[in-house]
Backbone:
């Protein structure tokens, strides 16, 4: 995952707001993942509209020092097909 | 705050919702958690059930575990299944297989279900002898036929759901082989003394040494085996098993019964755990979010006699329903506490609560498991060795 890549929430994933952040549910592979920080939820929601990952992090107000851990979290979400690289979403 | 603490405080909607569509059943399993058999005349109508699905969609309950009774004998079962799938509510349904004809299997495998449907076939023995002993004559063949139909139709990854008992713990490898044979996933769950299970728990629940066998097996071969997070009391053997190590009743788990009553957990069908009724009390969301019972279950609990235990963090005192239906205090050890405190507690003074509802058939039919007949006779002395002692076909 790089800051200048373009990603988006996968089409068959729904986010359910919860006090700790959100539940992400994938209707296809039936995985349930807990997004344990409201900021991460904001990043994930921003991904699809933002120019790139960096812009989504900025839009969600994540300080630069925290970006590596957010990138790692996004990689985890990508591994479960919760988010997809944007060309694939369009395809 | 750690995630588990959020769970303890309860979520805005359940994660693991079970919905029993009917109390009617073609079988009469000895350990039925919901004492099913007869249809309740107050059963939700099709329109009421659709309204429940609409509400689950609004609440973003992503999937629901449908059970019963035998859900597929409700005439509108397939309609409701489709309705749920079309409303972004995935379905995992449990069945004894009775209605899983080749045609239905083909439907489940078709794009109409879009992979939103999971099928779970109940099997409590890897052989007909052991299975039919508790589930009744012919039930093994019914389940196997259903698995075969699913496989032939190209339905992938059905689940074989096994309640672990004293009689079948020795068959874990056979269950796994059976699952592999049908391209299915094995799911093992814990026997709780709920429903008719209360009557047979003493005879069926795994012996202490069998609990260790189960734990070791799960540790060694449990990677692709589902457990419904039901064995967290075994964490006190050492390492915690993967999953949600906490009693989720009323916090992330709940049950909607066939008449719309909402209980804290499918294993806790009793007035003490009845939060309300979705028809009378303003809908499911209202009951889930505001019922005093659920508020209470979400308030911080004390560990009671367990608080001093080294394993409290992973075991958390075990299963509330198991304690309740064996007459043990809810803030003490589980009756199957692997540190041995449960046996001590069971040996002490306790009174087992009376059932508050029962939909068992008034007159047993030919499907009744043999073990109930055994139980009406004087105890058979060699019963402890063989589940089939005294069984003459
Ligand atoms: S009462 Fe038992 S079965 Fe129900 S959620 Fe709690 S631990 Fe699980
Ligand atoms: S004493 Fe309580 S916490 Fe400890 S193992 Fe037994 S049931 Fe679990």
Residues:
């Amino acid at each position: 995952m790089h800051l200048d890549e373009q990603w988006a929430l996968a089409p068959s994933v729904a986010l359910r707001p919860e006090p700790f952040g959100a539940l992400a549910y994938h209707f296809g592979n039936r995985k349930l993942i807990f997004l344990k920080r409201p900021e991460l939820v904001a990043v994930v929601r921003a991904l699809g509209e933002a120019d790139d990952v960096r812009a989504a992090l900025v839009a969600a107000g994540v300080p630069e020092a925290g970006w590596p851990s957010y990138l790692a979290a996004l990689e985890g979400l990508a591994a479960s097909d919760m988010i997809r690289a944007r060309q694939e979403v369009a395809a | 705050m750690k995630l588990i603490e959020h769970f303890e405080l309860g979520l805005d909607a359940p994660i693991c919702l079970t919905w029993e569509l009917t109390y009617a059943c073609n079988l009469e399993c000895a350990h039925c958690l919901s004492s099913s058999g007869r249809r309740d005349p107050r059963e939700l109508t099709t329109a009421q059930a659709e309204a429940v699905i609409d509400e689950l969609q609004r609440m973003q309950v992503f999937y629901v575990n449908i059970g019963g009774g035998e859900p597929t004998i409700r005439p509108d079962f397939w309609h409701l299944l489709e309705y749920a799938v079309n409303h972004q509510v995935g379905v995992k349904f449990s069945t004894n297989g009775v209605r899983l004809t080749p045609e239905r299997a083909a439907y489940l495998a078709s794009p109409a279900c879009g992979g939103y449907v999971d099928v779970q076939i109940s099997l409590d023995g890897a052989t007909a002898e052991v299975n039919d002993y508790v589930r009744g004559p012919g039930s093994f063949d019914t389940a196997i036929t259903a698995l075969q139909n699913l496989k032939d139709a190209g339905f992938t990854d059905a689940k074989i759901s096994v309640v672990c008992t004293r009689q079948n713990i020795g068959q874990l490898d056979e269950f796994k082989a059976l699952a592999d044979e049908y391209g299915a996933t094995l799911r093992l769950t814990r026997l709780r003394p709920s429903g008719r299970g209360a009557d047979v728990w003493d005879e069926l629940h795994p012996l202490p040494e069998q609990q260790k066998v189960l734990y070791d097996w799960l540790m060694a071969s449990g990677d692709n085996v589902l457990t419904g997070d039901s064995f967290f009391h075994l964490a006190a053997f050492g390492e915690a098993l993967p999953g949600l190590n906490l009693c989720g009743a009323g916090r992330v788990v709940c049950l909607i019964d066939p008449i719309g009553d909402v209980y804290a957990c499918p294993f806790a069908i009793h007035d003490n755990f009845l939060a309300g009724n979705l028809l009378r009390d303003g809908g499911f969301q209202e009951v889930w979010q505001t019922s005093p019972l659920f508020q209470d279950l979400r308030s911080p609990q004390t560990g009671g006699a367990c608080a001093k235990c080294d394993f409290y963090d992973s075991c958390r005192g075990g299963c509330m329903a198991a304690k309740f239906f064996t007459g043990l205090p809810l803030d003490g050890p589980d009756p199957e506490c692997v540190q041995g405190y449960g046996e001590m507690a069971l040996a002490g003074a306790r009174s087992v609560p009376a059932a508050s509802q029962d939909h068992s058939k008034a007159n047993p039919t030919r499907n009744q498991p043999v073990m109930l007949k055994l139980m009406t006779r004087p105890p058979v002395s060699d019963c402890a060795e063989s589940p089939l002692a005294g069984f003459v076909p």
About this structure: Helices of chain A lie at 38-47, 53-59, 67-79, 86-90. The pocket of iron/sulfur cluster (ligand 1) is lined by residues B 192, 247-249, 253, 265, 267-268, 319-321 (CB under 6 Å).
